[in-house]
Amino acid sequence: MLAINLITYNSDFQKKSNLHSTHLDLIAGLTKEITINIVDRKGIDKIKNSDLKIIFLATGGVEHLVAEDYEKLPHPLIIMADGLENSLASAMEIMFWLRGKNAKYELLQGNPHQIVERLYYLDKMFRSRNELAGKRIGVIGSPSPWLIASNADYLLSQRRWGVNFVDVPSTEIAERAEHIKDEESAKIAAEITSKALAIRDVRATDILKSCKFYLALKQTVKEYDLDAFTLSCFDTAKVSGTTGCLAVSLLNDEGIIAGCEGDMQSVFTLLLAKAVTGETGFMGNLLFINQPNNDVVIGHNTIGLKQASQFIIRTHVESGKGVTIQGILPETEITMLKCGNESLDNYFVSEGRIEENTNYVNACRTQIRIHLSNSVDYFINNPIGNHHIIIPGNYEKILSDFLSANSCKQII
Question: So where are the chain's domains?
Fold first, then answer.
């Protein structure tokens, strides 16, 4: 059962002992469906940061008290008022004051059941925000030189979201890979190849080397206590002699958020998508735009094996070497998401549908054509970089609500 804290505000003219009797219908209605902990405003500091907090206006005449407590109140502010004792009038004044500070807020009022439904939704977003806090994102190697606009400011990202970017030398992966035993990598290689639909132009030795890279990368993730990472693919390929595409695929399957090309904004988007929706996304390049059909083609050289209906093991398209994954995805509903800017406070989101798996020769191996609900003109006029994240399912509303509540700007 959902548990919430009601931070209660009373004017000096209202006796606190009358709280339950005055607001009997609201309190009784709520407690039928959720657990309520009533906290006087002077006890704000005693509430755990992990607990959902609601500002409850028991009376009017408390505007100045909310203003006094503004810095220590939870943000965005969720205000509840049932209208009795001039509480709704007080809420109007407070919300106008908050708007002047460009602060995010929401008013809860109406019948108890409707309020409870909304509280569950808000609790989901609140817990998603808490889930991001403290996450460690590894930046393995230097970001690819062509990603001139896909970096994140470490300090600003930490202040906004509570995430920590951690630099990891790419040479560590190669050094660890040298100590992986052949029999360890051979076992993994045999399991993967047995499940593949086909293997094209890839040598067995390349698959073994990629599996060693995967095991070495997994050790590095554990060593640095990483929740996610972005791998500078070409940087690590130079020192390891193989691509990281298979390793990224397998680690995503294991619940470790893995991105490519040192793209910090995209790996954060993957992490946020997982926190809010519970789904593992697919990071892809924009390959083609079809304005008349409102379609785009997205592709990349890797995808989690669990995300694909079938997969083919192939060489890396740019170099013709190493191991990549050509995933064949089901034709299903998806959500496309991208968070960007150095402080990760811009976003694009749109629902859509995978219409087909394409197979263009000179393009990344996994390719999907997507029909979007929102206009593809965004990609022509105002894109947030190249990479975008594809999430299975329809999550545009909750993602947009979550990002908006955290003061992010939607780009269309």
Answer: 3-132, 136-410
> Which value, to the nearest 10 degrees, does the dihedral of the CA atoms of residues 307, 309, 312, 315 take?
-20
Token look-up 């002699």 returns 241
Assigned fold of 3-132: Rossmann fold (3.40.50)
Strand partners of residue 168: 140
Strand 3-9 and strand 35-40: pairing?
parallel
- How far apart CA 47 and CA 31 sit, in angstroms, is 19
DSSP 70-133: GGGS-SSEEEE--SGGGHHHHHHHHHHHHHHTT--EEEE-S-HHHHHHHHHHHHHHHHHHHHHT
Indicate the pTM of the whole model: 0.92
pLDDT in tens, 199-237: 998 999 999 999 999 999 999 999 999 999 999 876 666
Sequence-distant (≥ 6) Cβ neighbours of residue 277 within 8 angstroms = 335, 391, 393, 395, 398, 399
Distance CA 192, CA 212 (A): 13
